[in-house]
Design brief:
Layout (H helix, E strand, L loop, with lengths): L5 H23 L2 H8 L3 H7 L3 H23 L5 H15 L3 H19 L4 H20 L4 H19 L46
Helix pairs in contact: 1-2, 1-4, 1-6, 4-5, 4-7
């Protein structure tokens, strides 16, 4: 049997943490469950990450960096007019893995809870990465502040509706050209994104983090 390097083991722990935290959230997930998924002991886990918070931030960072990287690759060489659909398609592909969306929502809850408890440092790392996603999207859309805000606003609404598992045909989707498949619990595999099916309406597909 080929032994894994420390870096490979660290990678497997981050992946396991993404799965467990996506399902159980920060407070509802034990490091024991993550160690068990990887097949290592808790003492070994804490040799790679000093505590649960550091591991959660590693998982959150990885998830958000993957979104940012997918957006950047999607708009490489695209014009601001083409960037909307390119980034929407990239994000749609990311959501084929429902853990991507679940973990995003868990991260927002964890940061908000930490802020209430006076732990502002916890959210600083997440806010810094999210700001990079915002800035990259902003530039791709021609550095138009209003357009970027609207882009993320629609994307975050899609995140919420998909997380809540609203089925295809429900009135909440009326302003989106979406074909959600809620075969995954609380998730949607999204089809083409558009702000409205009205042919006279301006198209504005967009992702959220």
């Amino acid at each position: 049997m080929v032994r894994m390097s420390a870096e490979e083991r660290r990678e497997s722990v981050i992946r396991a943490a993404i799965t467990e935290f996506a399902r159980g959230g920060y407070r509802g997930t034990s490091t024991e469950a993550i160690a068990r998924r990887v097949g290592v002991s808790q003492p070994y886990l804490f040799r790679l990450f000093k505590n649960k918070q550091e591991l959660f931030l590693a998982a959150a960072t990885r998830c958000m960096e993957e979104v940012r990287r997918a957006m950047a690759e999607a708009v490489s060489g695209a014009s601001p007019e083409e960037a909307h659909m390119a980034m929407a398609e990239a994000y749609k592909k990311l959501l084929e893995d429902p853990e991507k969306l679940l973990l995003q929502m868990q991260v927002y809850v964890a940061v908000a809870s930490a802020e209430v408890e006076g732990d502002h440092e916890f959210g600083e790392t997440v806010r810094a990465i999210w700001s990079e996603l915002w800035d990259g999207t902003h530039l791709a859309l021609g550095a138009d502040q209003a357009e970027t805000t609207e882009f993320f606003a629609y994307g975050m609404l899609i995140n919420v509706l998909a997380s809540l598992g609203f089925p295809e045909g429900h009135r909440v989707w009326d302003q989106f050209d979406l074909k959600p498949d809620v075969s995954c619990v609380g998730m949607s595999h999204l089809g083409t994104w558009a702000r409205s099916t009205d042919p006279d309406a301006e198209e504005d597909p967009g992702p959220g983090a």
